[in-house]
Design a protein that fits this description.
The complex is a heterodimer of chains A (196) and B (113).
Chain A: H1 13-47, H2 52-106, H3 123-163, H4 168-190
Chain B: H1 2-45, H2 68-77, E1 78-86, E2 89-96, E3 103-106, E4 111-112
Antiparallel strand pairs in B: 1-2, 2-3, 3-4
Helix pairs in contact in B: 1-2
Classes of the chains: A mainly alpha (196), B alpha+beta (113).
Chain lengths: 196, 113
């Protein structure tokens, strides 16, 4: 089933804001290094004792650069900041879906199957979580089957005790049924490492 | 974040200081060229101009002191303040286009600020 395209690009506000801020900080840091490297030769000429004509030439180049470079750098920062919303959204979207699905599972809904959109990140993680949910589903359904069998055997046992008619063969058969269910449960329990 | 703000403030202060230095250096260089122009005027006319009209860069008789191109350049690079001639010694005062509008004085022998 194809999922509709997400319309809200700011889905996990805190998560995305953190990474957008980080992107902007990195861009500012790069800008700082870039500006220092670009302006350094002119600043050196101004700082040290160069002839006035050379200082003026460097000054003109520096002022020209000053008047042209900032709008361009500002535009680059703005473009990348907007792009970072889309980039973080590729992770934030799946994170939001995973969080919601895990919350559903925590509330007991084992029918959840996480489906991510094409191009979304964290697909591998989603698949692993799907396997985990499927395992839990098998576990609970096995327990339920054994629970049903145990309940039925117990009811049968109660009726026979009330009627005081428990032939030995029937008693043994019931014990075998209970033991079969017990064995099933034991095998399931063995699959898990439970800390002491 | 606060540290970042402090660093940006320091960087901006250093940067604007150098922009001001650049504007002053340009004004000084332009005045240096103005000196050359005044020397040429002196060679042509045997004297320095009594006064200079900075709007069209002409002397008291309407003769050009600076070329039109240099006149335009001067208007861009500095703010002319005054020109005076006293006993054959001229003094041209102008302000640089930095934030403090630094006053620079040109005489025949030196440029002072």
């Amino acid at each position: 089933m194809k999922l509709p395209k997400r319309r809200n690009y700011f889905i996990e506000k805190k998560f995305q804001a953190k990474y957008i801020l980080l992107t902007i900080l990195l861009l500012l840091f790069y800008t700082f290094i870039f500006v220092v490297l670009i302006f350094a030769p002119y600043i050196f000429t101004l700082y040290f004792d160069y002839p006035l004509a050379e200082k003026a030439e460097a000054s003109r180049a520096m002022l020209l650069l000053h008047s042209t470079i900032w709008p361009k750098l500002g535009l680059i920062i703005a473009v990348f900041s907007i792009a970072s919303i889309f980039i973080t959204h590729k992770v934030a979207g799946p994170v939001y879906r995973l969080k919601r699905s895990i919350a559903q599972v925590a509330h007991g809904d084992l029918g959840v199957v996480i489906r991510l959109r094409r191009g979304d990140d964290l697909k591998d993680l989603a698949e692993h979580i799907n396997i985990l949910i499927a395992n839990m589903r098998t576990l609970v359904s096995t327990i339920k089957t054994d629970y049903d069998k145990l309940s039925e055997t117990l009811r049968d046992l109660e009726q026979k005790i009330e009627k005081k008619t428990i032939p030995e063969a029937s008693g043994k058969e019931m014990i075998q049924k209970i033991q079969a269910s017990r064995k099933n449960m034991e095998e399931l329990i063995k699959k898990f490492k439970i800390p002491e | 974040m606060m540290l970042m703000g402090i660093l940006i403030a320091i960087a901006y202060s250093v940067y604007s200081n150098y922009l001001n230095k650049a504007r002053i250096a340009i004004a000084e260089s332009t005045l240096d060229h103005a000196r050359d122009n005044l020397e040429l005027y002196n060679i042509d006319n045997g004297k320095y101009p009594e006064s200079v009209n900075f709007i069209n860069c002409v002397d008291e008789n309407g003769h050009a002191v600076f070329t039109t191109a240099f006149c335009d350049q001067m208007a861009k690079d500095l703010i002319p303040e005054s020109y005076a001639l006293d006993n054959g010694i001229y003094t041209l005062k102008a302000r640089a286009r930095d934030t403090n509008k630094t006053l620079i004085t040109l005489t025949r022998n030196k440029i002072t600020k």
